[in-house]
Write a structure and sequence with these properties.
The chain contains 13 helices and 9 strands. With 432 residues, the protein is mainly α. It starts with 6 loop residues before the first strand and ends in a 23-residue tail after the last helix. GO terms for molecular function: carboxy-lyase activity; pyridoxal phosphate binding.
């Protein structure tokens, strides 16, 4: 069995410099190809084909110290043979959470998409970096096509954008763009001499707003949270008050971050009314088209202007990253496979499922719907039997919160260990 550490010279006439073979050693290509073939078969059998099997466990749960021993995580001086590496791969699959499992429930997951999976296989194999057309021609055009279609759906005639690693980074981009629009000199001169900048966002906003303010040097104390109504929507009149308060303090309001679909309640802020407030005070409302001017560093070794093609396709200067992954390709592949109507059907199904869940919650004793949803987010309480006859009030809610806390920290795990059950996850039957 050939291990990956075993190297063979690529030519008969070996060239040596300081004892190092320059035209070798190289990894044994045949052995490497065989490992890829075996590993792909393992992934297909143990991940893809079992993804929808409800008889499989969601997770083969092990405590951290035990899992460290099972995985043999130590890195050694010498490499391991391929059969041992395949065992490692099998263990990684076995002890990982199967996020595609029908009974896996967590935010930010939506099951297995076969087309996006293939797209990820391809991009990992090709290993592109999306910053210039010459090194990533296909994926830059793919991203352009996806963004163009998304801008069209929003209803804009023009726009700009890039795919980011996630919502937190996107919010940071928006904050930095708004600041650049307010004071373009910050790009060269930095924070010195700037007034105290204030931004406004909903009290129900994503936690990344404070994180972004901290990272960008704005400061978390300069994030003003605007009161929301009973459905979790930002109140425009309260926004107006907060803006005026900031101005009286001598601070400089520069940004309002509205939200369409808040993290918990799924609330949609009243964008038209918020836009009116922003227009009155000259505030930036989280709509971004300044990527190039804000982030451009004009790295001459990458972004030469005298190339043999249209250099407007070199989009790397729009990003704070250099080596950016082609995430748009996954979305493009799924969109090509399903079509716009297929994607629409997925959204409609998610909303229909949310309405179904609401009706089922209303029928069941011990479940209390928090509010009628306007999106796919469903907020409800499970009321244990010991509290169901108790009148709602401070004592009731204090006890309910205590039960919920115990549930989350796993103080009283459900004893009837069903297959795939994780002790750290709360079960609705743990309180009597």
């Amino acid at each position: 069995d050939i291990g990956p550490q075993e190297m063979v010279p690529s030519r008969k006439n070996v060239v040596l410099v300081d004892g190092v073979i320059l035209n070798g050693p190289t990894t044994d290509a045949k052995a490497g190809e065989k490992f890829v073939e075996d590993a792909c078969r393992l992934i297909m059998e143990e991940v893809v084909l079992k993804a929808t099997d409800i008889n499989e466990k969601v997770c083969e749960w092990r405590p951290p110290e035990e899992l460290k021993r099972l995985l043999d995580l130590e890195l050694r001086d010498t490499g391991e043979p391929h059969h041992r590496l395949l065992e490692r791969c099998r263990d990684v699959i076995r002890y990982s959470v199967k996020t595609n499992h029908p009974r896996f429930f967590n935010q930010l997951y939506a099951g297995l998409d076969y087309y996006s999976l293939v797209a990820r296989f391809m991009t990992e194999a090709l290993n592109p970096s999306v910053y210039t057309y010459e090194v990533s021609p296909v994926f830059l055009l793919v991203e352009e096509a996806v963004l163009k279609k998304m801008i069209e759906f929003i209803g804009w005639k023009e726009g700009d954008g890039i795919f980011n690693p996630g919502g937190s980074v996107s919010n940071m981009y928006a904050m930095n763009l708004a600041r650049y629009k307010y004071c373009p000199g910050i790009k060269e001169k930095g924070l010195s001499g700037l007034p105290r900048l204030i931004l406004f966002t909903s009290a129900e906003c994503h936690y990344s707003m404070k994180k972004s303010a901290s990272f960008l040097g704005i400061g978390t104390e300069n994030v003003r949270f605007v009161e929301t109504d009973g459905r979790g929507k930002m109140i425009p009149e309260e926004l107006e008050k907060r803006v005026q308060e900031a101005k009286k303090e001598g601070a400089a309001p520069f940004l309002v971050c509205a939200t369409s679909g808040t993290t918990v309640l799924g609330a949609f802020d009243p964008l038209d009314e918020i836009a009116d407030v922003c227009e009155r005070h000259g505030l930036w409302l989280h709509v971004d088209d300044l990527l190039k001017r804000c982030y451009s560093a004009n790295a001459s070794y990458l972004f030469q202007q005298d190339k043999f093609y249209d250099v407007s396709y070199d989009t790397g200067d729009k990003s704070i990253q250099c080596s950016r992954r082609p995430d748009a390709f996954k979305f493009w592949m799924a969109w090509k496979a399903l079509g716009t109507l297929g994607l629409e059907e997925r959204v409609n199904r998610a909303l229909a499922l949310s309405r179904y869940l609401v009706e089922e919650i209303k029928k069941r004793e011990g479940f209390k719907l928090l509010l009628e949803p306007e999106y796919a987010n469903i907020c409800f309480w499970y009321i244990p039997p010991s509290l169901r006859q108790m009148e709602e009030g401070p004592e009731f809610w204090a006890k309910l919160h205590l039960v919920t806390h115990r549930c989350l920290v796993g103080e009283k795990p459900y004893k009837g260990r069903e297959r795939g059950y994780q002790p750290s996850v709360c079960d609705s039957r743990l309180e009597s």
